[in-house]
Design goal:
It is a single chain. The protein has 9 helices and 15 strands. The protein is α+β, with helices and mostly antiparallel strands and 357 residues long. The chain has an 8-stranded mixed β-sheet with strand order 5-4-3-9-8-2-14-15. A hairpin with an 8-residue loop joins strand 6 and strand 7. Helix 1 packs across helix 9 and helix 8 packs across helix 9.
């Protein structure tokens, strides 16, 4: 078979067309620095970050301020304290901040009793050689570094949500292949009595079905934010209280660098939101940045990363924004309509971009 340049061009154009049909996308050039991009219409969070970065502060400081504002406002009930109770009715926090110049990362996961997730993550980056601290040990560290606590992270809303869920026999939940199916447990493996009756292999061409759709703007979500400061330095951050009614101990993609967010000041940045249990298996934001490093525009890089997931999990719900070091930004999504927010010098206020699946 002889491969000509025309064949390669046609194949590439066909690939782009297939991507356009598979996932939604939006693209825009935001102009000069500084720049703030965030998942969802979290306008006050973007304004808070913009105020910091426009005054000349660093991209890292702006990300922390923006995500912190979202925690205080309990954006959509899925960020900060007071939302997303787990099976035991407790709210825990996951957060991450990444410096795209030094590639330093600070993260906390499953953190209890501390209201300031993103600030705790920054403390990990500033005052340790570690990348992530978890659970009560993360809480103890945050308090030792000056954050207030311990605090009750529940709220009347989260307690009511949990109580109603318990009265509905704990349905829906994230348990699979267990018995009993229609109660609050205790649960036992369904195949204990017949260990040979298990799925051992899935072929390369198989697609995997997500059991239940738990991701949504008021259930399973994250603020993911990228900032380019006046010096062209890039940082990203995320904060979330995780999936509602999650199994205690569950950590999603929020604190995972490369999954919920990633930044490299030589290339650009990415933020993600959606079903973190699925998305973290693909490190989509790392993929986006590496694709842009190889020359892909943000629009194609975002669409490509989403399509890699949707080919294996056609029922998953998720979205990505991508921004390169020149301030060109784009979004892609699958399974829902996605919106992301932007503030740049050419804008008088935050603008919201809508991406269709």
């Amino acid at each position: 078979m002889v491969i000509t340049m025309n064949n390669l061009v046609i194949s590439y154009l066909t690939y782009l067309a297939l991507l356009s049909m598979a996932v939604g996308d939006a693209v825009s050039n935001s102009g000069l620095y500084p720049l703030v991009v965030s998942t969802w219409p979290f306008l006050e969070a973007v304004r808070a970050a913009w105020k910091v970065v426009d005054s000349g502060s660093s991209a890292v400081d702006a990300v922390v301020e923006g995500c912190s504002a979202c925690e205080e406002l309990r954006c959509d009930g899925t960020v900060g304290p007071g939302g997303s109770p787990d099976e035991n009715g407790e709210t825990t926090l996951d957060a991450m901040v990444m410096n795209g110049v030094t590639m330093e990362v600070g993260a906390v996961a499953g953190m209890r009793y501390i209201r300031d997730g993103i600030k705790a993550a920054k403390l990990v980056m500033q005052y340790t050689d570690h990348t992530m601290l978890v659970g009560e040990q993360a809480s103890a560290f945050a308090i030792s570094m000056g954050l207030p606590g311990p605090s009750n992270l529940s709220s009347p809303d989260s307690i009511k949500k949990w109580t109603n869920w318990k009265e509905s026999n704990c349905q829906p939940n994230f348990r699979t292949n267990v018995i009993p199916l229609d109660s609050c447990g205790p649960y036992h493996p369904k195949d204990t009595a017949n260990p040979g009756n298990k799925l051992c292999f899935i072929g390369d061409d198989a697609t995997l079905k997500v059991s239940g759709s738990y991701a949504g703007p008021h259930n399973h979500d994250t603020i993911s934010m990228a900032v380019i400061d006046k010096m062209g330095n890039i940082a990203v951050g995320t904060s979330t209280n995780g999936a509602t009614f999650k199994i205690p101990g569950r950590v999603g993609d929020g604190p995972i660098a490369g999954s919920s967010a990633y930044a490299d000041a030589e290339v650009g940045a990415c933020g993600a939101t959606g079903d973190g249990d699925i998305m973290m298996r693909f490190l989509p934001c790392y993929q986006v940045v590496e694709s842009m490093r190889l020359g892909m525009e943000p629009q194609l890089a975002a669409k490509d990363a989403i399509s890699r997931i949707s080919r294996k999990y056609p029922d998953f719900v998720g979205a990505i924004f991508a921004v390169n070091k020149n301030g060109i930004h784009a979004g892609a999504c699958h399974g829902w309509t996605f919106q992301y927010s932007v503030r740049s010098p050419e804008m008088s206020d935050v603008e919201v971009f809508t991406v269709s699946p």
